[in-house]
Amino acid sequence: MTPEVGHYALVLALGLSLIQALVPLYGAQTRDVALMRLGTSTAIMQCVFVAISFGALMTAYVTSDFSVANVFENSHSTMPLIYKFTSVWGNHEGSMLLWVLILAVFGAAVAVFGANLPTALKANVLAVQAWIACSFYLFILLTSNPFQRLARAPIEGRDLNPILQDIGLAIHPPLLYLGYVGFSIAFSFALAALIEGRIDAAWARWVRPWTLTAWMFLTVGISMGSYWAYYELGWGGFWFWDPVENASLMPWLAGTALLHSAVVMEKRNALKVWTILLAILAFSLSLIGTFLVRSGVLTSVHTFATDPSRGVFILCILIFFIGGGLGLFAWRAPLLRQGGIFAPISREGALVFNNLFLTIACLTVFVGTLYPLALESLTGEKISVGAPFFNLTFAPLFIPLMFAMPFGTLLAWKRGDIYGVTQRLMAAFGVGIVAVAAALAVAGVQHVLAAFGIGLGFFVIFGAVIDLTERVALFRRPLGTSLSRAVGLPRSAWGTAAAHAGVGVTLIGIVCASTWGTERIVAVKDGQTVSLSGYDLTFDGMVQRQGPNFRELAGRFTVSENGQVVGALSPSKRTFSARSMSTNEAALLSRGFSQLYLSLGDANADGSLAIRFYYKPLVLLIWIGTLIMAFGGILSLSDRRLRVGAPKPAKVKPTLQPAG
Fold first, then answer.
1. Following DSSP, what letter does each residue of 171-237 receive, concatenated?
2. Which contiguous run of DSSP H or E holds residue 555?
């Protein structure tokens, strides 16, 4: 009975989304306040019914109800409870239900926390959200019903794909979806503004918190996916320019540009048309990512096998929303008034520079990802666009962007003094030069590009520090005054500095791990020792272990440095009998911000075992930097100036008139 409850709750959510899509929109056109306010209640109730539907599917998984086809295909009664929960979104149908749940949560959040929004704008935003929700409800109900019953319930399920039975993949998809779907709010705000034909600085303030929230989740989601690929796939890499990885990177780049553009619009009432376009593009790229994963046009560890009808349905959704959004933009954008004027050398100019390079980088990834697919569909010719292309085109775009990053925060609005800012950044320049010199002294002149990358990372980090010291007048005012100013500094200023510093930290991690990482692929026998980068790895034999739904053959290795034991590594191969599949589980040993990485290969006829042994210097800085970026977003979001909506006007107390 529970699956039927979930199915009908989804049908009711579809009905509510149709009401929400039409009635508030009509109310906004006729200025009927009652009809406009109907969007608030329907958005909340829609969220309730989708939550009931999702809860029903989760109940079916937890109770191992194999009469539900989706549960039978993706679960097993002996799986750990945590993976029974995460199996709900470890498949196409369940993950799409998670998608619409997050979409409904964001819609309800606008309904609840957007009380200070203008009534007409809020009605239009909720109406656009409802159109998006309606299309995906139809997609689920017509092509991807997660509650479909089997005529005869099997005794046991087929188990979840083994590579998805990992805590990283349990967390990664929800975070990624929160980012993808979060950009739908910016999209809805953009279309609502175009429908009304009015956009101003207040609009930018309203849309910025939603964009920032989506950007934070997408940042952490991409980071988590990168770390999962690093340790789970056994290749020792953190980014492979996989088309589906690129599909998540593109909306992140567009969202980053949107955040910076919205700042200019809020502060200077400028870049209106450009900000609206970025809001449309950020969510459009999220939809394209959904199409790539769900349509079956890609073969990737990230994709779900799907039938062609699903791909055609999602393609229609893409055409409707992307084409409709861009069409409305082309029609209404020329009517929007342009805002303030600013000099090229100014904070606005720096943010425009930032936008230029981010959008070109996004376009580069877009072309490199979709061109092979388009060429194959048109001519049948298959080509591969991989890391060499992206490294040669994407990386050079980020060098000037990162170099300009510290300048942007120090330049004044409207008209800046580039000479004065350069003087204030001399300390950061000095730190960067020292870092370059130290890297060259340690690694040699053959690594001059890597040394430059490290110096650039330190320049960005200390540029963010200098921005804060300038704001609090450190060393120029008494210490007590500087501390007082630091306490009163807006949290968004701290958040911006943290996010920029996080970019520098990530860059240092990428450069060090990519340039000075070492690797040995060797066959070892019991008692044999292998040396790498000052560490000795001794093979102590193999051991068989039984997991809840798998058998495991694990290796035991002792790690020593300078004759002292510093840890142990136990990589393994797991065999899942229900799926007749095996996974390779790498073992990691952290040494400060560096890691030793070990994965098993195949056994040889002479009794030896092939292993891959890596040393990854400062590799953890890659993900620490992304977490610092997300923390900066949290600080900015907590700023009282970024609360959703505009402050309500104070109520004027009636004046008592003296009795006459």
1. HHHHHHHHHHHHHHHHHHHHHHHHHHT---HHHHHHHHHHHHHHHHHHHHHHHHHHHHHHHHSSS--
2. strand 551-561
Count of other CB atoms within 10 angstroms of residue 487: 8
C-alpha–C-alpha distance, residues 514 and 188, integer Å? 40
Q: How far is CA 558 from CA 23, 75, 528, 564, 597, in A?
A: 68, 36, 11, 10, 13
Nearby residues of 483 by Cβ (< 8 Å), 6 or more positions away: 472
- The tens digit of pLDDT for each residue in 104-152 reads 999 999 999 988 899 999 999 999 999 999 999 999 999 999 999 998 8
Distance CA 370, CA 605 (A): 44
Contact indicator for 251, 359 with CB cutoff of 8 Å: no
Element housing 398 (H / E): helix 387-410
Question: Going along 607-655, which residue ranges are E strands?
Answer: 609-616
Beta bridge partners of 613: 520, 598
| Ramachandran sector of residue 29 (left: φ over 0; alpha: ψ -120 to 50; beta: rest) | alpha
pLDDT digits (tens, 9 = 90+) for 606-658: 889 999 999 999 999 999 999 999 999 999 998 876 654 444 444 444 444 44
Quote the distance between the C-alpha of residue 500 and its chain's center. Answer: 17
90 SS3 class: coil
SS3 content of the chain, % helix, strand, coil (to 5): 65, 10, 25
Contact status, residue 235 vs residue 226, Cβ threshold 8 Å: no
| Cβ atoms of 328 and 241 closer than 8 Å | no
Element (H, E) at 477: none
Length of the chain in terms of residues written: 660
Q: Which residues fall within 8 angstroms of residue 54, CB to CB, at 6 or more apart?
A: 6, 88, 97, 98, 101
| Phi and psi, residue 261, nearest 5° | -65, -40
Distance CA 434, CA 421 (A): 20
Question: How open is the CA angle 74-77-80, to the nearest 5 degrees?
Answer: 85
Give the residues across from 597 on adjacent strands: 588, 614
